[in-house]
Amino acid sequence: MLKKYYVTTPLYYGTGRPHLGSLYSTLLADVSTRWHKLKGYETFFLTGTDEHGQKIAESAAKAGKKPKEFVDVFVAEYKKTWKDYRIDYTKFIRTTDDEHKEAVIKLVNTLLEKGDVYKGVYEGWYCVPDETFVPGKHKKGDVGPACPSCNRETIYISETCYFFKLSAYQDKLLTFFKEHPDFIYPKERLNEVIAFVESGLKDLCISRSTVKWGIPFPGEDDQVIYVWADALTNYIAALGYGDEKRAQEFAKWWPADLHIMAKDIVRFHAVYWIAFLMAIGVKLPHHLLVHGWITIGGQKMSKSLGNAVDPQELLKYYDVDALRYYLVSHFSTSQDSTFSIDDLEKVITQDLANELGNLLNRVIVLARKHNVNKIAPREEWSSATVDLQKSYDVMMKSFNEYMQKYMFHMAYAEVKKYIAQVNAYVHAREPWLLADKDPEAFVETLAAVASSLYAVAHLLWPVMPLKMEELLQALGKKLILGEGTVENLAAWGQEIAFNETKSLFEKVEGRWQEAHLPEEVKTRIEEIDIADFAKVHMAVGTIKEAEVVEKSDKLLKLQVDCGEYGMRQILAGVKQWYKPEDLIGAQGIFVVNLKPRKLMGIDSQGMMLFVEGDKKLERIHPAGKASSGKRVR
Predict the structure, then answer these.
(1) What is the CA radius of gyration of the chain?
(2) Predicted pLDDT of residue 144
(3) Geometric angle at alpha carbon 534, from 529 and 538, rounded to 5°
(4) Are the CB atoms for 258 and 33 separated by under 8 Å?
(5) Coarse DSSP helix, strand, coil percentages of the chain, rounded to the nearest 5 percent
């Protein structure tokens, strides 16, 4: 029997570059595909772009381009980003592709032949950015309700169009959901869909007469097929639906094993798409994975809201596999997750550099230091190592269960926990002491850690493909894909060859902040030697006199008692915040060995220190009264 796995992402709208949300959906598909490859499945991974509709036509017109020409630029951006993030898709489909157009026409014609489509008039609210009809009553002069997805104002439209008899499939949908309780992950999303269907389905508009950019509706020159009847069809179009020459290919891969999407489009996939397939007599997909949103500052991240994170910008500062790990292991597939640079850097530093990377480095260094270049296969283990093997078995059982339910973050939390157990095993065994007093126990410890790392590398490979192949190379091993691989990971005691390797991961805390400091701050914090700093003499001074400098908008002239450093005339650029009387009698901190310079033709024999406050420069001064001339250190 063919072990096949077909997974899809949603089609991404071609009006801008990919953001972190679109990367996340695609990365989940990539991880799921690689996991099935690891288990010996033949896989097909589909992604692509949605390129029709009113929003694209309007955006292209503003850019002075034809719609297809406009979208081509962003399609190239998607393909580049997916390549840079090591997304190993099988096919990239576009709704402007001929095979897609032909499949959409086939689907619509089949619906027409079955009598499931009729002509009517749509009147109501419409969100152009999200290509979505929004329920609500309308009176002349009304302002449209906010779109539930992007919260922007909707417009009122009234036009002739074709409707799909969605309402006729209400009972069939409910029966299907009842018979397939695991159709949607997580389960609460299925409950939401059921509640939506039970509230009553209205027939669905599947064409537009006021939009010209799209696939022409069969037999109608003034109608184009609307986005959901168009875009959703890509899942079967890519496999040759409607093409007799590709019937065998279609039969091989369909139905889809998994459709992946964010929660805001679950209704279109779980209701509209399933009803279309029921209507045309095509098998239904096995599962939907409906993940939460990525949020920033409590808001959904999206291009339309203007708060999207550019994945390409992140690649300038962080390793791609480390980024993949952060998104998969620390973002919940069942809930919304918050993105933050601080969290990203902590995860990379702690999970990858300190825990996993350091574990590999320690075992390699110990092995090579004591001339253990190879370890022969072994079968005998001490009780401590047997306990570690048992921990692995427990971890693997949970890992498999979570992966089966597409709860990737939970699965990799189990791996993280196990890596911590391996580190604890090393600490308890103290192999650096065993090397001389008990060489056999020393070699056993290295073998146990290497076996653990060998297994962990395979489990983490779907998330970090390049880094885990580097880890395996350090152990003298190669990645194995195929039947029985996952089960055989529990068979410890393989031959190991320890190879020198560079550190897998770097500590990155503070990297983003440092890279994004303003230029003037970068200049201010240019490193100096301690000897340079020692040359600067700072002392407490008491201001005896203060007056404005004529014709200057900034300067005050101060006469300062600097104790043993004498009376100093010092000019300070604080006129906009302080009056002379504010400073007379006040104490401050002064640089007293600064070479004198002229400002406005007046000598200044030092510098007074201030700190940048929210609204003004704040005077730096001793906490209590101090003697003039006291050195500041």
Answers:
(1) 33
(2) 75
(3) 135
(4) no
(5) 45, 20, 35
Task: For residue 368, give both structure tokens.
Answer: 């090579």
Nearest of 5, 53, 49, 403 to residue 224 by alpha carbon: 53
Q: Does domain 4-312 have CATH number 3.40.50.620?
A: yes
Q: Tokens 């020159």: give the residue.
A: 221
For residue 514, the model assigns a pLDDT of 79
Query: Tokens standing for 498?
Result: 């320890």
Beta-carbon contacts of 503 under 8 Å, excluding residues fewer than 6 positions away, are: 353, 357, 361
Position 373, amino acid: N
For the record, the structure tokens of 492 come out as 């410890």
d(C-alpha 300, C-alpha 378), whole Å: 53
Q: What HEC string does 164-186 produce? A: ECHHHHHHHHHHHHHHCCCCEEC
Superfamily of domain covering 317-332+339-497: Isoleucyl-tRNA Synthetase; Domain 1 (1.10.730.10)
Which residue type, as a one-letter code, is found at position 431?
P
Instruction: Indicate the residue type of 30.
Output: D
- The whole-angstrom separation of Cα 523 and Cα 536 is 18
Q: How far apart are CA 479 and CA 570, in angstroms?
A: 70
pLDDT value at residue 24:
97
- Tokens standing for residue 411: 């699965």
How many Å apart are CA 128 and CA 148, to the nearest integer? 13
Tokens standing for residue 300 = 């959904």
Side chain identity, residue 158 = S
Nearest-angstrom CA–CA distance, 64 and 384: 70
Q: Give the span between the Cα atoms of 498 and 115, in whole angstroms.
A: 69
Question: Is the pTM above the cut of 0.85?
Answer: no
Integer Cα distance of 611 and 588 in angstroms: 12
CATH number, domain 527-632, options 3.40.50.300, 3.40.50.1820, 3.40.1440.60, 2.40.50.140: 2.40.50.140
* Residue 86 CA: distances (Å) to CA of 257, 319, 463: 22, 12, 10
Residue numbers in the chain where pLDDT is lower than 70: 1, 129-131, 135-141, 149-150, 297-307, 517-526
Indicate the angle between helix axes 408-429 and 439-460, nearest 10 degrees: 170
313-359 residue pLDDT tens = 999 999 999 999 999 999 999 999 999 999 999 999 999 999 999 99
For 51-168, list the strands marked E by DSSP.
91-94, 117-127, 132-134, 155-164
